[in-house]
Design a protein that fits this description.
144 residues; alpha/beta; two-stranded antiparallel sheet; Glutaredoxin
Length: 144
């Protein structure tokens, strides 16, 4: 019997249990039947942030960003590319710190972009500054 993981759906934000060896791009949510692993960053608000970061046993990489931030906008394509590369190993998400300051505040984000990796509510690591896709992938892999 394989290990079961809790994975939060990027579409309906319901928690799913899925066998680790069944984790693939073809796995679908039991509630909304949409793909669980899209290879694309999901935009979070306060409620969905708590669900993804607090419940997912698959690591969640969060990009804390703001629309007015030039480096954040420049890094967005690289972040999306890293999400595609690591789609079966981590979920990628974005939190707009301007729209949801109350969600970002407890994490003491001092500069953006800042990326943090979480698993089951525990922060595994954090890095600030715009990075190319390859460096994002290497950094995330170092924390897995």
């Amino acid at each position: 019997m394989s290990d079961l993981l809790h994975v939060v759906c990027p579409h309906c934000h319901k928690t799913n249990r899925i066998a680790r060896d069944q984790l693939s791009a073809s796995a679908n949510c039991g509630s909304c039947h949409q793909p669980l692993l899209t290879g694309e960053p999901v935009n979070l608000d306060g409620v969905s942030f708590a669900k993804h970061v607090g419940r997912s046993q698959l690591p969640v990489v969060v990009d804390f960003w703001a629309p007015w931030c030039g480096p954040c906008r420049m890094m967005a394509p690289a972040y999306a590319q890293a999400a595609q590369v690591l789609q079966t190993r981590a979920q990628f998400a974005k939190l707009d710190t301007q729209a949801h300051p109350e969600t970002a505040a407890p994490f003491g984000i001092r500069s953006i972009p800042t990326m943090a990796v979480f698993r089951e509510g525990v922060e595994l690591g954090r890095i600030s500054g715009a990075l190319p896709a390859g460096e994002i992938v290497r950094w995330v892999e170092s924390l897995l």
